[in-house]
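User: Hello, can you help with two protein structures?

Assistant: Certainly.
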Amino acid sequence: MFRDIISQKKEGGAVDGRAPVQTMLPAAPATAGKERRQLRFPAQNENPPPHLSSVFWFPASESGFGIIAAIFAVVFLGLFGLLAAKHLQSTATGSAEARIWAQALYTAESTARLKILDHDGGGTGFIAPTIEGVNGSISNDTFTAPDAPAALESRGSIGSIVRKIQVKYIL
């Protein structure tokens, strides 16, 4: 049966009552690949070729759409850049404030340790420290004698930032 179909196609006859089917592709022109094709811009009212997407081929009624899309893209990217800049600024400010708060806390702890060391006889006299611009001070000290419970309040302050700690100890 397969040989019958091929012989009918070669003869140009119909297979099973249908019109003959062309099975061979047309031959390539002799100049194929030797000449360059020239790009041309479409006319205003010309329909796009079937192989081009309508995204790249605007009819005459949409001729100003490109500039509107470009303006939209520029505004969108500008707002995104502004958002990123504000985020970086707030992150940097928050990091700087967190560092100052931590430095004030460490100064308050150092002040409390120096005062306890002075009560224990390990120093030559208490001097409140100043560490990188953060002032340490003792706001309340209830130490009376060794073997008695005592409480100590220490502060670390720089500008309006104040960190307080309370230490309870027995020497």
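That covers the first. Now for the second protein you mentioned:
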Amino acid sequence: MKFNFIFITLMFSIGFSKSNKGPSLTNNKWISEGSPKREVWFQDWSGYIRLFVTTFEDTSSVNPGPYITETKNKPYLTPKPYKLVQKNQLIGNIKWDQDFSWNGEKNSFTWKVDRANPKIKLPDIYTGTLTYEENNLTLEIIKGFQTIYSMVLKPVSYY
């Protein structure tokens, strides 16, 4: 009896599962091929999709000041030089103009950015196009008539 119930439940759930028409945007982190390096994430919250774009622009060296104090027998307290990566981040909700298509067509959207680092005047509205071909995602983000980002992205699983 218990086995029959489990079997019927399993078959019922398989019968009503969603068909996957293509890879998922939200299961991957997308990394740009060119320079500067960019990471793109899509987060699917049941009523909306969030888009995260992080750009790693420059690396600077940070050296300790010339007047550092050293403590005897505690060299680990002496500051060491390190590299600091400059990154910019934009985060916001996207609204697709039409349903997303995986067959190489351009998918257009509006992106309302509500978080940014470094700080900018928010909210900020961008438009964009997204095309998926041969396991590559081509993303172009425009503000007004100026192209802000144009990149080719490859998927990287992050979990």
